[in-house]
Amino acid sequence: MIKEFFDQFPYILVGLEVLYLVGIIFLAGKIIMDTKNTSKTLAYLMLIIFLPVVGIIIYFVFGVNYRKNKFYTFKIERNEQVYQAVSTYIRETHHKTLENHREDIDQFLTTVNFLYNAGHSPLSQGNYAEVLINGEGKFEKVFEVLERAVHHIHLEYYIYDNDNIGNRLADLLIRKAGEGVIVRFLYDDMGSGKIGKKLLKRLKEGGVQVSPVNKITFRLLANRVNYRDHRKIIIVDGAEVFTGGINVSDKYINPNPKQYWRDVHLYMKGDAAFYFQFLFFSNWIFATEKIPEISQLYFTKNEGEGTSLIQTAASGPDTKPSIMLSTSSAVLSAKKRIYIVTPYFIPVETVLNAIKQAALSGVDVRLMVPKSGDSVIVNAAAYSYYEELLENDVRIFFYKKGFIHAKTMLIDDQFSSVGTANMDVRSQELNFEVNALVFDQKINKKLQDLFHEDMNDCEEISLESWRKRPKSKVFFEHLARLLSPLI
């Protein structure tokens, strides 16, 4: 019937084709003007040209720069309001720490100064830090710390599942709320799709203040949608903090040995909590559009209980790309070694070039990644980078025991990063992420030992063997790499 209609009125079909062509030209101009990353620009242009209609839909779902809309303008304005309330203490903390410890962080001073100037993130002293291995190590510590909360508990999670761990934590939060503790809980509406309405209702009825971040209206259209809250944060009484790769889910405590989940989290106590609190309140106001009273009970001085210097790198659609730029800065500061663990390695060009430069300068650069990822396309895109790395003296280790989900980086004997950001485009440019940067030889040594221990469950790949892969596989990997800015 449609064909007969256009046969009868061919000028209408011609008109529609002209309109479509004009639309494509205007959309191409918009992509060129709005998309700063060259590889993304080319990927989106290829999509709209070679995938008619479908490519346009993909662009509007994944490619539109929502940082420019009123939604994020509101958040940026509220971030500044929160910062003004605590700016004096941030400045005092940072400058006092630099005055006392400049020599201790001299090698990474450029990175430290960048994070302070780009995102108001202070370097703090006197912190206690502890590496927590897997969910088994994390959750028992979390329950221990939450039990002693007296004023507030703040949680922010990408994934919160309605399972044994999720319900055990919910029971504790409800009980603490009943004791008069203020409990606020932020969750990502996509990542926490399994949290369930019943559990959310139980939390709210139990006195827990709950809100999604960046709420999803049509879940079927939201797979891997941009600007997710990928952070995992717990703050207790403005003094104790947890962050890292471990979400709230039973799989992180490895109930099934055949599906082993390898991860790392970090517990901190001290002034490091200050900036995490700032990040939480910024997202809470963004999510709820309500500004709570921010008293000194949330921003208490806790300096003096430990020896770790800690600074925070945070990124999101409301901030500068601090994680990406601080990562490349720290990598270029290395003199002896760089050990990187990440489940997804699809780096932006800035970070990739920094890693290659460090390796070619004689630094011992090692990358540990899963042998098999949880996405065929993502895994293939990551594989496309490995020959380039091997050619530039980077050693690559495939973790075989299970899925390695940790996001850690250690440099030389002092610098360590533990956080939520994967080494991929999405984490470093789009999502809300946070990494704790710890300047402490003990923490660094712990992560070194952990890396060497995990090497026992790895297979190191060589350039010679990697080049022997089937050409069809190599072609698919490079095809996936073309889509990497969109993954």
Stretches where pLDDT is under 50 for at least 5 consecutive residues are none
Strand line-up in the sheet with most strands: 4-3-2-5-6-8-1-9-18-16-15-10-12-13-19
Strand content: 15-25%
Return the average pLDDT rounded to an integer. Answer: 87
Descriptive overview:
The chain has 487 residues and is α/β, with parallel strands linked by helices. Helices cover 47% and strands 20% of the residues. Helix 2 runs antiparallel to helix 3 and helix 6 packs antiparallel against helix 11. It is globular, with a radius of gyration of 24 Å. The two termini are 39 Å apart. The mean pLDDT is 87.
Distinctive features:
487 residues
Concise synopsis of the structure shown:
By secondary structure, the protein is of the alpha/beta class. It contains 17 helices and 19 strands.
Topology:
Layout: H1 2-8, H2 10-34, H3 38-50, H4 54-63, H5 70-101, H6 109-119, E1 124-133, H7 134-147, E2 152-157, H8 164-178, E3 182-188, H9 197-205, E4 209-213, E5 232-236, E6 240-244, E7 261-262, E8 264-269, H10 273-288, E9 308-315, H11 322-332, E10 337-341, E11 345-346, H12 349-360, E12 364-370, H13 376-391, E13 395-399, E14 403-404, E15 408-411, E16 415-419, E17 423-424, H14 425-430, E18 433-439, H15 441-455, E19 458-461, H16 463-466, H17 471-482
Parallel strand pairs: 2-3, 3-4, 7-14, 10-12, 11-17, 12-13
Antiparallel strand pairs: 1-8, 1-9, 2-5, 5-6, 6-8, 9-18, 10-15, 13-19, 15-16, 16-18
Helix pairs in contact: 1-2, 2-3, 3-4, 5-10, 6-11, 7-8, 11-12, 13-17
